[in-house]
Each structure stands twice: as structure tokens, then as C-alpha cells.
Amino acid sequence: MSNSNLPNYLEYKGKYKGLLGWIFSTDHKRIGLLYLYSVMTFFIVGALLGLLMKFELIAPGKTIMEAKSYNAIFTLHGITMIFLIVIPGIPAILGNFFLPIMIGAKDVFYPKLNLISWWLYILGAVVALSSQFMHGASPDTGWTFYAPYSFRTQSNVLPALIGAFILGFSSILTGINFIVTMHRLRAPGMKWLKMPLFPWSLYGTAWIQVLATPIIGITLLMVVAERVLNIGFFDPALGGDPVLYQHLFWIYSHPAVYIMILPSMGVISEVIPTFARKEIFGYNAVVISTLLIAFVGYFVWGHHMFTAGMSETSLFAFSFLTFLVAIPSAIKTFNWLATLYKGSIILKTPMYWAVSFLFIFMIGGLSGMVLGSLAANVHLHDTAFVVAHFHFIVFGGVGFGFFAGIHYWFPKIFGRMYDASWADTGWLIFFIGFLTLYAPMFYLGITGMPRRYYDYVPEFHPANIISSFGAFIMIAGLAIIIINLIRSAKKGPKAEESPWGGKTLEWTVSSPPIVENFEEIPEIK
Amino acid sequence: MYSNLSNFSEGVDNAFVIIFSVIAVFLVGLTVLLIYFLFRYSEKRNPQPTPIKGNMWLEIVWTIIPLGLVLGMFYYGWMAWIPMLSKAPENSIEIKTTAQMWSWKFEYENGKRTDTLIIPLGKPIELIANSPDVLHSLYIPAFRIKRDIVPGRITTMWFKANREGEYNLFCAEYCGLQHSYMKTEVKVLSPEKYDEWYIDTTAAVALTSIPGAAGLKIIRDMGCTACHSLDGSTLVGPTYKGVFGHEVDVITNGKERKVIADAEYIKNSINNPNDDIVKGFNKGLMRSYKNELTDDEIEQIILYLQTLSGGKE
Questions:
Q1: Are A235 and A148 in contact (CB under 8 A)?
Q2: Could you tell me the end-to-end alpha-carbon distance of chain A, in angstroms, rounded to an integer?
Q3: Does any domain span residue B313?
Q4: pLDDT at B255
Q5: Do residues A161 and A216 make contact, with C-beta atoms less than 8 angstroms apart?
Q6: Residues B25 and B63 grouped into a single domain
Q7: Shortest CB distance from B148 goes to which of A309, A333, A447?
Q8: Quick one: average pLDDT of A228-243?
Q9: Contact in structure between A325 and A293 (CB atoms under 8 Å)
Q10: A18-508 CATH fold
Q11: Domain's final residue, options B32, B66, B85
Q12: In chain B, pLDDT over 70 holds for what percent of residues?
């Protein structure tokens, strides 16, 4: 199968040529790459915005910008990173590319819908970002758009909201597509419990995308209606309730964290067995925990609002469930560790990322225990501690998982190999930078520094200096990683069909894969 | 930790210590195990992997043990939280608290008003808080207390301070442009000193003998200076310096015009701030103070503004 004479998906010439051959292609692999390029472009922008914030916070008082710019920048950083990067992220890039191949299908079930999802994504991004260039001030509400501030501010909140609304549809359509693909297109003989773990994680994710995203859509529309038509849902001045907004917002945005992290866990569940040269320990337990996370994740949103003034009963329930949702993540972690036991471990770039993922994810998850506790939460809510926890999970968890995945599948995607020593150097610098950047923020939060602070009292200065330096280190590592990958995609040495000895179906097809992946649909025994 | 500065801090710190101990054991233990595995089962030391599919008992064990531990952590967090939810004691000192963009206002039982929170040591304090504009959150890190102040609702919280001193009070919920400057201090005085301060209203009387001083006090207490400077620098709103009696470019109903900032104009700007917007500033940021300031008080403010413009009209 490997020495196929059929053109691979990169060379294939269809109805259109050049760029049009990409942006109108319904090939899931080309769409995956469209997402890769667009998401990475936004990611670089988002990371540079984060860097600007860290520049500002290196000293109290004004360093490089005014409070107004700082507030606009953290809002844009949040909107870009959340709605344009980590939510679509792994499913749209690696999921699009590998889900069909890993289950032995020629494409997703609805290839045109898949292309529409990307177009909606671009449309949503353009609308959301137009808020920066239109007449008037950039949005300054934070990515949470909390009422009633989001009604009082004169900044361009409307386009940002409408953009997020459109992006929601892109996410829902991808979810539907993946669910149907997995139900209908698994290769003959691939029973549910024979499906690899990365598709399983996408399955759990897809259900959350389909069921939770409409709630944020409706909520954002309610805000638009309130701003434009003065209907009082959330603004007390119009008889609304701001806490209602928070409930609706987090009913989506908490499960959204699982939209982000589950696919990353799926990647890790592929990488670790390959490099331990051993099958995953407790396959069934990992599958069950994936589904449990997706399910229980719906019922914990209230832990974002412990100080907002809820009833005792809801506080009790939300804190209790928050602790419960930690269990399936712990089970996964134990299974990953047990997979290493009696393995024969090869430490290569994807494995460095996977192992550091474990460490970062443990810190992120365990710090979540502190926040889930009611008494501790009172002190830590809305402080830098939350920001640190959140970045360990969402940037650490998703980012390290994504980079593990991209370094794992890179030879398959581009048919070329990257420079391993540069990749490892980039990883090491990034890892050190990451810890230096975010670990001090735990300390800042414990000592009481609120989040979204443009300026701070002098006692918070030392930890902020360390944190800012961490950002500089991390960006340097990121630059090495990205430059290495871009160079190698064009100039790297040709890659083998299966450079790591992976056992899943994508390693049986040529690198890069042919247009419809398989000459013959494989049969699973 | 264990600074024990308020009646709640011990419970919160206990929960902290317990949870941090458990997670530290896990983090260190699992990391050591991870590194050991990477070393012991490296390709070099263990060239041949042993296939293991899984182990039911192990799965059960590592489900049950963490389950027990998280329930324990939940319990301690809950137990330390219950007292915070309890009703304030009968003998609490009630202080009306207003959180507004971007300052704090405290009003005591005898009508005294301050922009810092002044409280006696060891007595229960109940803050009865509201916000006239957006969400804020009252956060005193040293006391381990925080509560969101939601506009349209009355939020109450209570605590007792255990040691004299000055502590930071922050706004923890993002509330717009000057969010990070919406901070003040809690001053914990000995009961004797507090009583002395509380009874003493002469400071205010003495001030009234200086022209405009009463107006300045009102401006400070109402938190006007969060947006309007006294020294000519531009904040969210126009400065007070040199305004009175001078010509101002304003936008009225979308049209630009020039007005003289006389007493009538100042009064209308306080009561209906969106009528005339000074050119270069944004509409909708200031709320009306119609029900909060009496005509007398506005007159005092105008007297003070005159002193900032050389006293001439």
C-alpha cells in the first residue's frame, strides 16, 4: 500500500489550482491543514498579546501602555486564545486530519459541511476581530463579557459577541460531523471498543460541542438583544439579573474546558503507548473516564461563581461535583503512568512533550482541588491563582498535548521529518519558560493579587518580575519550535511510513497519505 | 500562613494546609514515579517490553483512594465555609458599603462617611453592600474574605478583625478602566481609638471654616476623584481644575457647542451627566447623583470648584 502511485493529498490537483484548491477542498486532510495554518496564525498573535501584558506587568505603574490598552489587550488575548485557538484547536486540526484515517474511513461523513465549518470559523474570526479596527474603542470586557459591564462599556462589544456566536456554529457543525463519522464510517470489524483512544476523546468532545455550544449562542444573542433592543435579561437597570448571565455563560464555558482538554488527553493516550512500545494500560478505564468527564463536566459550572452569592444548596452541590470530576482525570493519569511500567521507553520529541504534559497537567489538576474547595476558593477566586491554574490546564494541558501531537504526526502530515535536536531544544526552553511564567502566579494569587490588574501594590513586584522573564523565555522556545516545523515541512528529509512504530491505522498508509487515504478500506480483525 | 488576622482566616488556612499537603504528596509521589519509570524502563535498560493489558483491581484501588481523599478535601472546605454564610451576630457594627466605578464608600451608623474602612478590633462588623453600576467584589486578602457585590442586590458579609493594623482592600471583579485602582485600606483600630474616632466630628467642623473644604470632603467621600482629577491631569472624566467659570466644549444631543461652566451647568452635570458630554470624553460612564447629593451638598462642591479656578466666577 505504501508505494502507491496515486497522488498524495498535497500534490493532488482537483477542479481548482493553487490557493483555491485548498480553500474549496473538501478533503479532510486539506481542511485540517487550513485549520492548522489559521489557528497557528491566531496563536502567534494571541501569544504576542500575552507577551505585551507580561511586559506591562514587569513593574508596577505604567510600563509600556495605559490601562485602557491593557484591558483591551487582555480581552483580545482571551477571545483569540479561547474562541479561535483552544476550542477548535486539536479537534479541528489533528482530529480532522486523523480521525477518518484512524477509523479506516476515506473522509468524514459530511465533507462539505466540514468545509463550511472552516469557512464559518474564518467568518467568525473576521467578525470578532473587526471589533479591533472599527471606529470606536476595542472591547474591554474580558473574554467573559460579564453583565452589566458589557452593556455599559462604549467599546465595540457587539462584533466580538456576534463573532463568538458564529464561531459557535463552526464548533457545533464539526461536532455533529465527527459524531456521525464515528457512528457510520468505522472500518469493518472496528467495534466501538476497538476504536483508538484519540477518536474516542473526539467522540466525547463532539457531544459537548453539540449539546453545550447552543447555550452560549443563545446567551450571546440575549446580550445583543439587550444592548440593541433594551430587553432586560441581565442588566439590573432594566430589571435583569447579572448572576443569570454568569450561570448561562458558564453552563457552556465550563464544559468548553473539556472541549479543550479531552482531545489533548486523546493525543497523549496515543503517544505514550507508542513510545513505551506497549499498549495502553486499562483501555476500557480510559474510555469510560473520557465519557465520564464529558458527562460530569456539565454539572460543575457553578464553581466559577462561588463568591457571586448562590444558595447554600447549590454551593454544596457544585463544590461536591467539582471534586468528583477530578476522579476520571486522576484515573487517566494513573493509567498513563502504568503504561510506562515495564515498557521499553524511547525518549523522542513527542514523548518529551507527552511526559511534560503529565507533569504540567498534574499541577493544573491538583491546583484545581484547591479552587474547588469552598473555603479556599473564597480567598483565591478572581486572583492570579485562578489565572495560573487555568493556564496550566488550558495552555499547558492543551498546548503540550497539541505539540506532542504535531511532533508525533508531523512526518505523516507532511511526509517529511523535522530536525529533532532543534525540536528538543525548543521543547526544553518552552518547558522552562512555561514553569517560570505561571508558577509565580500561584504565589501571587495566594498572597492576594487580583486578576485583570493593570497596576499592583509593591509587595507583588518580585513574583511579577520572575513571571515576566518566564514569558520571554517561553516565547523564545516557541519561536524555535515553530520555525523548525515550518522549515522542516518544506525542506526536511523524507519521512518513513511509520517512523515511531505506531500501531494505529494512520501508520499503515503512505506519508503523506493519498487523497482518499486508503486504496482499499482496511478490515480490522 | 496562619496569620489569623480575622475570625475566618483560621478555617480557610486549615483547608489550605490540608489540601496543599494532599496534593503535594500526590505531585511529588507521581513525579518521582514518572521519572523512575522513564529511567528504569528505558529502551536501554529494558529492551523488551512486557505486554500488560490492564488490571481491574488496580483501577478500583486508584478510583476509591482518590475518591476518599477528594471527599475529605471537600469536607474541610465546606466546614470552613459554613461560618461565613452564617448570619452576622446581633451586636455587629453595621457599615453601609458602596462599591462604584472605581472607588469605595463607607457610611457608619452615625452618618460618618469615609473612603477607607475604619473598624475596631475584635468587634463583629457587618458590611451591607451595594453597587450602583457594575459588578464589583470586595476582597480583603489578609482576612481571607471576598464577596461579589451585584448591582440591584444588597449583599451582606461579616467578619471580626483580630489584630490592629492596615490591610489592603481590593476590588476583585473586573469593573472596567480603573479596576486595578479600585483599592483602599482597612484600618483596624483598638476599640478605644475607634470610639474616639467615631465620636469625633470636630474634624469635619474644623474643615468647614476653610472655604470649599466641605465640598472637597464630599468629592472625596463620594469617590468623584476616581475619575476627575484635582490637579489638571486627565483621567476617565475631565479634571476639576480650572473648570468653573470657564468656557467648555461640550456635545449636546450629538451637536458640539460651547458653554460657560457656571453653577447651573455644574449642577446639571451632577444630576444629568449625559446631557452635556465634554468633548473628548465618553458618554454613559457617569451615573446620576440626583438621589445621592442634596442641593446643599452640590452647593458645597461648587464652592470648592471655585477655589480650583482662582475663586472667580
A1: yes
A2: 18
A3: no
A4: 85
A5: no
A6: yes
A7: A309
A8: 88
A9: yes
A10: Cytochrome C Oxidase; Chain A (1.20.210)
A11: B85
A12: 95
Residue B313's pLDDT band (boundaries 50, 70, 90)? very low
Q: What is the pLDDT of residues A41-50, one digit of tens each?
A: 999 999 999 9
**Residue A2's pLDDT band (boundaries 50, 70, 90)?**
very low
Q: H helices of chain B, where?
A: 9-40, 56-85, 191-199, 202-208, 213-222, 263-271, 295-308
Cell of B280: 473628548
| B157 shares a domain with B71 | no
| All three cell numbers of B5 | 488576622
Q: Is A152 close to B285, i.e. CB distance below 8 A? A: yes
**Does B36 contact chain A (CB < 8 Å)?**
no
Is there a domain that residue B123 lies in? Answer: yes
State the total domains in chain B. Answer: 3
Q: For residue A367, give the C-alpha cell.
A: 491546583
Average pLDDT score over residue span A168-180: 96
| Side chain identity, residue A1 | M
* A296 contacts B24 by C-beta, under 8 angstroms: no
Can you give the residue range of the structural domain that contains B64?
9-85
Is position B2 within any domain? no
DSSP letter at B139?
E
From the list A242, A344, A375, the residue facing B151 with the nearest CB is A242
Torsional class of B131: left (φ above 0), alpha (ψ -120 to 50), beta (otherwise)? beta
B172 vs A: CB within 8 A: yes
Distance from C-alpha of A83 to C-alpha of A65, rounded to nearest angstrom: 25
**Maximum distance among all Cα pairs of chain A, rounded to whole angstroms:** 70
Q: Do residues B32 and B99 both lie within one domain?
A: no
H/E element, B188: strand B183-189
Q: Would you tell me the crossing angle of helices A349-372 and A242-276 to the nearest 10 degrees?
A: 150
Interchain proximity B42–A241, CB inside 8 Å: no
Residue B60 cell numbers, joined: 478500583
Q: Where are the domains of chain A?
A: 18-508
Q: A448: distance to nearest CA of chain B, Å?
A: 5
Which of B30, B54, B59 minimises the CB distance to A337?
B30
CATH number at residue B53: 1.10.287.90
Q: Does B238 lie in the same domain as B157? A: no
The pLDDT tens digits of the residues spanning B41-100 come to 999 999 999 989 989 999 999 999 999 999 999 998 898 888 888 888 999 999 999 999
Q: What is the pLDDT of residue B237?
A: 85
Backbone φ and ψ for B153, nearest 5 degrees, come out as -130, 155
Banded model confidence at residue B152, pLDDT cuts 50, 70, 90:
confident
Calculate helix-pair angle for A197-229, A157-184, nearest 10 degrees: 150
Residues B191, B112 contacting (CB under 8 angstroms): no
Among residues B209, B207, B206, B239, the alpha carbon closest in space to that of B305 is found at B239
- Whether residue B233 sits in one domain with residue B139: no
- C-beta atoms surrounding A287 within 10 Å: 20
Write out chain B residues lying below 8 Å of A325, CB-based.
none
Name the residue with cell 490540608: B18
Closest CA to A427 of A349, A345, A347: A349
B256-266 burial, b if ≥16 CB within 10 A, otherwise e?
eeebebebebb
Beta-carbon separation of A375 and B76 below 8 A: yes
Enumerate residues 218 to 257 of chain B having a beta carbon within 8 A of any beta carbon in chain A: none
Q: Does B78 touch chain A (CB under 8 A)?
A: yes
- Whether the CB-CB separation of A296 and B43 falls below 8 Å is answered with no
- On whether any CB of chain A is under 8 Å from the CB of B80, the answer is yes
Within a domain: B246:
yes
Work out the average pLDDT over A472-492: 95
Helix (H, G, I), strand (E, B) or coil at B99: strand
What's the mean per-residue pLDDT of chain B? 87
Check if B2 contacts A (Cβ < 8 Å): no
Put simply, whether B53 touches A (Cβ < 8 Å) is: yes
